[in-house]
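#struct-help
A.M.: can someone run this one for me? Single chain, 88 residues.
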Amino acid sequence: MKKSRFTTEQIIAILGEGQAGANVAELCRRHGISEQTYYRWKAKYGGMEISEAQRLKDLEAENRKLKQIVADQALDLHALKAVLSKKF
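D.P.: on it. Structure tokens below:
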């Protein structure tokens, strides 16, 4: 996955400017983002504080690790079943 140019704190600051009444088109031009990006960020981070966004990022990382563990265990289980199903 591509790494964002903006940190979570920067994204929340940009969204805060938009909530303060700044023109969205001007805000996007100033920060070098598209309006689609702004509204995608707004849908994901809208109304969050920096601490909440950091917690979301940590939970997403933990979830990614857990999914990897489950996938590894499923492969191990499949291999064991294949070995046990063979007749010697």
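A.M.: thanks! The longest helix spans residues 50-85.
D.P.: also worth noting: The two ends are 45 Å apart (CA to CA).
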